Design the sequence.
């Protein structure tokens, strides 16, 4: 991305603006509103670019992007419990259910049913929770492996998120060899993007294989989340991320966003990589901060090769429940102005959004729809993408 973010060709702009918008709607909004001339009236962004080094490449292995298997069950349970603002620990979902029904769960009662089994006997723990929870077959999880190649050729491995279902995530870890990597302590750290069930509640699966792995969490975690880290069998001290930018390795930084999220979760961390001679790569769990805030924060605060955005991967949180609203088209259009050369999306990006990206001509890396992933329009379970 060049310093002048408004340098968009007319042809590319018109092509992007037409995507997903009927002609009448677009005309009523006015061509000018979507043009680079409109943006030229805004004040220039003051950039304070932090140098966080350079790496040669990043390979992402999608361990699991299928956080749940049935949208209707997930949304139905949330609404029955009281809606999107309800505390997630009261939803009565495994592994923290107490058997009392929708909206009547509690962390203390739920964990008490399995605490003595964590993390050594996950099969028994999950079987107990299946009998106490709502829709016990619905949980899946989100998790990916990051292999970061340094300029000297050394490869370092990291995990982003640890999924939800003990049963599902353990099978996914074994499928991709993550279990052995953890046993051998090849994976240097685990980053929990945010406190939501589908990214965090599978923590005992990681603890089963390495209960001392360095663990990074946003400083917005609630007391239940911090307690769950201990109850999952973690023997270390979690790193509480409280700075906007934390360098992890040369060319790798953890970015902190303070944002309220549904079901009483607060804050998300995402990752940025500076790929030599290519530019910036952004990786997210759910991207609750939004694509535009994510990109704008990186543009404003990070220094990267060629001053160019190169790639993005992960859940981009546009249409996670496969609904569509015309305002989402604005996000599809806006993504184009950042000029990504590789887009690897899945999870809460939504199938419909992925199709919109493809139809818009964006450089989406497609997947294989294996292992219960539902679409080839994005990177599904077991698929890989390499940046650099």
Sequence:
């Amino acid at each position: 991305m060049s310093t002048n973010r408004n340098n968009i060709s007319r042809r590319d702009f018109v092509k992007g603006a037409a995507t997903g918008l009927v002609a009448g709607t677009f005309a009523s909004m006015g061509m000018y509103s979507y043009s680079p001339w409109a943006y030229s009236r805004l004040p220039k962004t003051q950039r304070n670019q932090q140098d966080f080094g350079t790496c040669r490449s990043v390979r992402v292995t999608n361990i699991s992007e299928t956080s749940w298997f049935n949208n209707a069950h997930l949304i139905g349970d949330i609404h029955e419990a009281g809606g999107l603002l309800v505390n997630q620990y009261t939803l009565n979902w495994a592994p923290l259910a107490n058997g009392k029904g929708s909206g009547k769960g509690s962390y203390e009662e739920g964990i008490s049913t399995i605490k003595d089994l964590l993390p050594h006997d996950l099969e028994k723990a999950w079987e107990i929770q299946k009998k106490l929870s709502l829709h016990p077959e619905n949980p899946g999880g989100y998790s990916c492996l990051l292999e970061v190649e340094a300029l000297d050729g050394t490869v370092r491995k990291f995990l982003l998120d640890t999924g939800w279902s003990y049963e599902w995530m353990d099978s996914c870890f074994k499928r991709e060899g993550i279990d052995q990597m953890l046993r051998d302590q090849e994976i240097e750290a685990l980053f929990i993007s945010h406190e939501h069930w589908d990214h965090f509640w599978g923590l005992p699966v990681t603890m089963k294989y390495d209960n001392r792995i360095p663990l990074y969490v946003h400083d917005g975690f609630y007391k239940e989340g911090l307690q769950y880290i201990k109850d999952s069998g973690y023997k270390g001290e979690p790193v509480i991320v409280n700075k906007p930018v934390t360098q992890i390795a040369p060319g790798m930084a953890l970015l902190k966003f303070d944002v309220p999220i549904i079901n009483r979760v607060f804050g998300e961390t995402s990752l940025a990589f500076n790929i030599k001679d290519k530019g910036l790569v952004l990786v997210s769990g759910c991207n609750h901060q939004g694509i535009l805030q994510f990109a704008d924060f990186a543009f404003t605060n990070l220094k990267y090769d060629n001053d160019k955005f190169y790639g993005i991967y992960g859940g981009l949180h546009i249409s996670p429940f496969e609904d569509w609203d015309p305002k989402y088209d604005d996000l599809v259009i806006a993504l184009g102005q950042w000029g990504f050369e590789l887009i690897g999306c899945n999870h809460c990006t939504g199938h419909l959004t992925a199709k919109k990206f493809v139809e818009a001509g964006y450089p989406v890396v497609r997947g294989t729809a294996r292992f219960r992933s539902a679409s080839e329009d994005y990177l599904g379970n077991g698929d890989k993408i390499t940046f650099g």
The longest strand covers residues 265-275. DSSP finds 14 helices and 15 strands in the chain. Confidence is low (pLDDT under 50) at residues 1-35. Residues 53-64+147-188+244-387 form one domain.
